[in-house]
Amino acid sequence: MSDSKRQNYSQKEKVEIFDKEFLPHINAMYNFAYRLTFDDDDSKDLVQDTYLKAFRFITSFERGTNAKAWLFRIMKNSFINDFRKKSKEPSKVDYQEVETFYNSDDVDKAITTDLRVETVQDMMGDEISNALNSLDVDFRTVIILCDLEGFKYDEMAKILDIPIGTVRSRLHRARNLLKEKLSDYANKMGFKN
Amino acid sequence: MSSNSTNSLDKRGSDQPDHSECMQLLQLVLDNEATDQQRETFEKHVCNCMPYFEIYQVDKTIKSLVKKTCCGKNTPTDLADEIRAKLFLKAD
Fold first, then answer.
1. Is there a contact between B1 and A34 if contact means CB atoms under 8 Å apart?
2. How far B42 CA sits from the closest chain A CA (Å)?
3. How far apart are CA B16 and CA B21, in angstroms?
4. CA of A164: how far to CAs of A18, A155, B1, B33, in Å?
5. Pick among A21, A120, A168, A172 to test the B interface (most B CBs inside 10 A)
6. Maximum distance among all alpha carbons in chain A?
7. Does A187 touch chain B (CB under 8 A)?
8. Tens of pLDDT along A16-61?
9. Could you tell me the pTM of the whole model?
10. CA distances (Å), A129 to each of A70, A163, B30, B75, B81, in order?
């Protein structure tokens, strides 16, 4: 995300960048907004707000660099600052989790998950979607960025303003939580594990 | 994964691969972030370790299902035009 060096664009160039580099990501942006807010109107507002900010700060964007990651970063910040703060405090980076995670028993936690491939494959899309939606927004976000949008760890670190180690540990925890939800669901529905 | 899986790890001997390292590698391989060497180490381990093979398969399946089922939210058709109108009316 090249936002340190100011670019000197003409109005025509700004519009070109907006149309050719920013707008093609609108579907991914809307989907991300919806996964954050779960509301059509809020998603629309969040996408609009993100694009208006992107244009306002377009001189911070270097043409030809990763526009999608840049837009996602703006949206994440808008969500935290404008949408989320009404209901709860923005999350704080838990540096402790980075330090302790890979030296703890937590790394083996997935072993206890009783899910099997066949069980997961038998699930309908709704179960996966509902399980993902039920996760805390910080955990949900890393799964969306990684598994849905295919961002690399270093891109996620920039979007979320957290160290790569935290991206990895948060992703690991998020996946374990998702598996727990799916496992609970499978047990409730009497799926064979 | 049953309790047998857990037991198989609890009973590992000192000559067995390092499961903690493998767990870290599993995520890197899953997310296509592993180096060739890390991938090779992981594949060797997984070939000899049924629980990790199963975990990897489950994680891979969930990852692909998340991608398949969670990205279908339709963007309102007029949204891009609305944004452009707002912006370029302002800009002019």
1. no
2. 15
3. 12
4. 29, 9, 29, 12
5. A120
6. 62
7. no
8. 999 999 999 999 999 999 999 999 999 999 999 999 999 999 999 9
9. 0.82
10. 26, 27, 20, 18, 29
